[in-house]
Amino acid sequence: MPDVEVLQQRLGYRFHSPELLGLALTHPSAAHERGTPLQQNQRLEFLGDAVLQLVLSAELYTRFPTFPEGVLTKARARLVNRRALAEQGRQLGLGEFLELSRGEEQQGGRNRPSSLADAFEAVIGAIFLDGGLDAARAFVLSRFGHALEQLPALPAIENPKGELQELLQARSAAPPHYKLVSATGPDHDRVFECTVEHEGVELGRGRGKSKKEAEAAAALAALEFLRQKGVQSGAPDAR
What we know:
The protein has 239 residues and is mostly helical. The chain has helices at residues 4-11, 18-24, 28-34, 42-63, 69-80, 82-92, 102-106, 113-150, 160-169, 211-228; strands spanning 177-184, 191-198, 201-208. The chain has two domains: 4-150, Orthogonal Bundle (Ribonuclease iii, N-terminal Endonuclease Domain, Chain A); 160-229, Double Stranded RNA Binding Domain (2-Layer Sandwich). The protein is elongated and about 70 Å long.
């Protein structure tokens, strides 16, 4: 196995108990191959996942003080999906340090996304046990700092109309009302403009190539308007 000193330099963290790093890099297949009660990294992966969720949840909560819970959840999910975690493991070169069974090695286990993602989370768990939450937090933010900076002012919402309705229904039984304001341009290149109102008050308006697209844009504008006013699901005055 390559010198783990190299890996510690990549991690930006030096272990007081290097055996924890070794455990984080021990794939379950290695234990199965030996037929002995060899410890492997699944328990550390479980712990690391919880630490990662905590650190990023706290960071998002602090960075975006007016975002509702649903938007924060979606933003966190974008950061910690399995593809993103595998890419983190790949960037650190964790695959070359994994302890694998011969069969797993022959089947490309060092580059398997699931193995890289699990190892990355296991490393977080190992750092947490070795150096505490502050060390784990510093490592996580060093790895995700760029991605956090790239988050837009309002994280992408897959269903803005649904998000808006859910937010407003926490305050009132009245649903939002969408109104087509205009449809301009030639038939092959129409531009629609819609507004969204709630209890007689316009919350936002948007434009699009279809009525559906314009309504979605209006809902996004309304969500941004409400965010600026500090309205969020679960707020005391929203019940």
